[in-house]
From TrEMBL:
<dbReference type="GO" id="GO:0016531">
    <property type="term" value="F:copper chaperone activity"/>
</dbReference>
<dbReference type="InterPro" id="IPR009069">
    <property type="entry name" value="Cys_alpha_HP_mot_SF"/>
</dbReference>
<keyword id="KW-0479">Metal-binding</keyword>
<keyword id="KW-0496">Mitochondrion</keyword>
<keyword id="KW-0186">Copper</keyword>
<protein>
    <recommendedName>
        <fullName>Cytochrome C oxidase copper chaperone</fullName>
    </recommendedName>
</protein>
<dbReference type="GO" id="GO:0005507">
    <property type="term" value="F:copper ion binding"/>
</dbReference>
<dbReference type="Pfam" id="PF05051">
    <property type="entry name" value="COX17"/>
</dbReference>
<dbReference type="GO" id="GO:0005758">
    <property type="term" value="C:mitochondrial intermembrane space"/>
</dbReference>
<comment type="similarity">
    <text>Belongs to the COX17 family.</text>
</comment>
<keyword id="KW-0143">Chaperone</keyword>
<keyword id="KW-1015">Disulfide bond</keyword>
<dbReference type="InterPro" id="IPR007745">
    <property type="entry name" value="Cyt_c_oxidase_Cu-chaperone"/>
</dbReference>
<feature type="binding site">
    <location>
        <position position="40"/>
    </location>
    <ligand>
        <name>Cu cation</name>
    </ligand>
</feature>
<dbReference type="GO" id="GO:0033617">
    <property type="term" value="P:mitochondrial respiratory chain complex IV assembly"/>
</dbReference>
<feature type="binding site">
    <location>
        <position position="39"/>
    </location>
    <ligand>
        <name>Cu cation</name>
    </ligand>
</feature>
Length: 83
C-alpha cells in the first residue's frame, strides 16, 4: 500500500515540526481558522507516522504503520484538507 517508503534511508530520529517557520495561507476556513498549510498541520501525527516508516522493516511497514497513517489522515481532514 505505501511501498514508496520502502526504498528510503531512514534517520534514527524524526524532528518535530517548527510551526514558527511555516508560512500561513491567507485563505482560512472554519476548520482551519489560522490558515495553516498542509505541510505544517498535524506535526505530532506526521512525526509518529514518519518515525514508524523509518524505523520499521520495509517489508512490514505498510501493515505496522497503517493506524498511524489513518490517524494522520484523520487529523488532516479535521483541518479541512481533502486527502
Amino acid at each position: 500500500m505505501f511501498g514508496f517508503f520502502s526504498g528510503s534511508k531512514a534517520p534514527t530520529e524524526v524532528a518535530q515540526a517548527d510551526l514558527s517557520s511555516c508560512p500561513v495561507k491567507p485563505a482560512v476556513n472554519p476548520l482551519n481558522p489560522e490558515g495553516i498549510k498542509p505541510c505544517c498541520a498535524c506535526p505530532e501525527t506526521k512525526s509518529a507516522r514518519d518515525a514508524c516508516f523509518f524505523n520499521t522493516d520495509p517489508s512490514e511497514a505498510d501493515q505496522k504503520c497503517i493506524e498511524l497513517v489513518r490517524a494522520h489522515v484523520a487529523c488532516m481532514k479535521s483541518y479541512g484538507f481533502n486527502i
